[in-house]
Amino acid sequence: MRLNCGPCVVREWRADDRAALLSVANNREVWRNLSHRFPHPYTEADADYWLDPQRRIELPFAWAIELDGSAIGGVGVDAGQGVFARTGNFGYWLGEPYWGRGLMTAVVRGAVAHIFAITQLQRLEAPVFAWNPASMRVLEKSGFERESVQRRSVFKDGQLVDAVMYVRLR
Ligand SMILES: CC(C)(COP(=O)(O)OP(=O)(O)OC[C@H]1O[C@@H](n2cnc3c(N)ncnc32)[C@H](O)[C@@H]1OP(=O)(O)O)[C@@H](O)C(=O)NCCC(=O)NCCS
Q1: What is the pLDDT confidence band of residue 168, given thresholds at 50, 70 and 90?
Q2: What pLDDT score was predicted for residue 91?
Q3: Which structural domains are found in the chain, ordered by start?
Q4: What is the number of the ligand 1 atom nearest to the C-alpha of 105?
Q5: pTM score, whole prediction
Q6: What pLDDT is attached to residue 125?
Q7: Reduced DSSP (H G I as helix, E B as strand, rest coil) percent helix, strand, coil of the chain, to 5
Q8: How far apart are alpha carbons 43 and 53 in whole angstroms?
Q9: Cα 56 versus chain centre, distance
Q10: How large is the C-alpha radius of gyration of the chain?
Q11: What residues pair up with 154 in beta bridges, in sequence order?
């Protein structure tokens, strides 16, 4: 898989992404906006776990974002179970040095089109912590709609925070 998204490419994670992954992922400001699956500090063991080929089997739609040949972030979708099998939990992150250049908007647009092309998902959900307006803006610019507010549903970084549910239907 190799998807051109403006200046970035979305592609499979590779074993040789280890050093780049460690340099961008070990960041509190990235961790603070993501679910519990993303660790902090982000250790060498965490990178090895993530880059283990077994993860590619468990999470077939989790990809690296590459800029100028280096991995600078991740994007992907997790399909739900059972009756939620046509719903996907969509997520993404970018290393802090790369924020504010429009990169993620281009990646989200490209990745969403690709996900709808290769899966039967009908609904992509992106729950955004209320303190993260940049991510809400990315989703709005990419055709997601603000659907609901899940009040005090998230406990992160020692704080209770609302999650704002953004949704894109096929
Ligand atoms: C959120 C994140 C993905 C944004 O990536 P990015 O490449 O910087 O996003 P873009 O440059 O494409 O767009 C950001 C938009 O947010 C806006 N923005 C940035 N900070 C903002 C703020 N504090 N308040 C309101 N809007 C803000 C920008 O102006 C831009 O909108 P514009 O094009 O209309 O001006 C990136 O900051 C990130 O990875 N954060 C940590 C992980 C994360 O939050 N993941 C998403 C979890 S839901």
Answers
A1: very high
A2: 98
A3: 2-124 (3.40.630.30)
A4: 12
A5: 0.98
A6: 98
A7: 35, 35, 30
A8: 18
A9: 15
A10: 15
A11: 161
Work out which ligand 1 atom sits closest to the CA atom of 95. Answer: 39
| Residues in contact with ligand 1 (CB, 6 Å cut-off) | 30, 33-34, 92-94, 99-105, 126, 128, 132-135, 137-138
Give 31 Cα–ligand 1 centroid separation in angstroms: 15
Q: Which residue has the tokens 């490419």?
A: 9
**What pLDDT, on the 0 to 100 scale, is given for residue 160?**
98
Q: What is the DSSP letter of 101?
A: S
**In testing the pocket of ligand 1, which one of 33, 137, 161, 167 has its CB within 8 Å of the most ligand atoms?**
137
Question: If you measure from the C-alpha of residue 145 to the centroid of ligand 1, how many angstroms do you get, rounded to a whole number?
Answer: 16
CB 65 within 8 A of CB 75: yes
Strand order in the sheet with 70-79: 2-5, 8-11, 62-67, 70-79, 87-94, 123-129, 159-169, 145-156
Q: Using one digit for the tens of pLDDT, what is the confidence trace for 50-95?
A: 999 999 999 999 999 999 999 999 999 999 999 999 999 999 999 9
Q: Is 15 helix (H, G, I), strand (E, B) or coil?
A: helix
d(CA 75, CA 73): 7
CA of 83 to the centre of ligand 1 (A): 32
